[in-house]
Specification:
The protein has one helix at 47-57; strands at residues 27-31, 41-45, 61-66. It has 82 residues and is of the alpha+beta class. It has a domain at 27-70. It has a three-stranded antiparallel beta sheet. The termini are far apart.
Length: 82
């Protein structure tokens, strides 16, 4: 029996939710395979929780999709959403 390796979604949208709190996810991560996690694993993060755990997680990742730039993409210079 073989299991597929987890791959993060190429584009995150409003249906992707943070695995920690359920808010919209802006970061998708794939954990490397280790003896403790023989098949790796995928985790989705809101910006808040990604910033809290990124330093610890980055050395354990095999893939990362970071779309936190989407948080300010549609805000005009006057502070209103376009």
């Amino acid at each position: 029996m073989s299991l597929a390796v987890a791959t993060p979604p190429a584009i995150l949208n409003s249906s992707h939710r943070c695995d920690r709190c359920g808010s919209r996810a802006y970061v998708a991560t794939v954990l490397r395979r280790t003896p403790a996690l023989p098949h790796g694993g995928e985790l989705l993060w809101c910006n808040h929780h990604w910033r809290a755990y990124a330093e610890t997680l980055i050395p354990m990742l095999s893939a990362l999709v970071d779309e936190t730039s989407q948080l300010t993409k549609h805000i005009a210079d006057d502070g209103h959403f376009e």
